[in-house]
Amino acid sequence: MLRKVETLDALDVPFSVVEVGETGIIVDIPASPIFDESGEVIGAINPEEYGVTASWADVMSPFFFDLRIGNRVYSWDGKTGTHKIALTPAGLIGLVRYVPFRINSHKSNTRKVIAPSFEPLAIRDGVLSVNDNTSKSAKFNGAKTGEEFTLGEVAFLRDGEFVRFAGAEFIPADEETLQFEE
Length: 182
Known about the structure:
Blueprint: E1 2-5, E2 16-21, E3 24-28, E4 33-35, E5 41-44, E6 52-53, E7 66-69, E8 72-75, E9 83-87, E10 92-103, E11 106-124, E12 127-130, E13 139-141, E14 148-150, E15 155-158, E16 161-165
Parallel strand pairs: 8-9
Antiparallel strand pairs: 1-3, 1-6, 2-3, 4-5, 7-8, 7-15, 9-10, 10-11, 11-12, 13-14, 15-16
């Protein structure tokens, strides 16, 4: 369960840091059982006892989300039905391809190539940006089609569900915007 806390010092339960922000630290605290020395369950961790409620909409880092750009969905881990993406050395987001290669006439493993990229869509300081501009009107080109998009058209998805749009300004979702084209 996502919770927002001011400091990690007060947490005496297992947790994962999701994001450190100006308004607090977002952590994921699992609601898991507590065992005694013999392995018997004696209780459960209640995440609601720590900090205040947080949601995935509070998380700014795009690494926790799949990205919907146009009618295609891109993911960092290559989920089924998505296009796998990664960062180039320059910090641009690009498509991942695996190309086989040979060393001394022996077929070797594949080499990861990150191209083409979404020019100039990048991650700077943990936030999606276009030439260091985080405005929803900042424009970039699609990796496969070269089609022009704005940052405000990039949807963040978590477990297939819409969370929010990218860009500095929050854009409320409506049903028409969320429809995928077949």
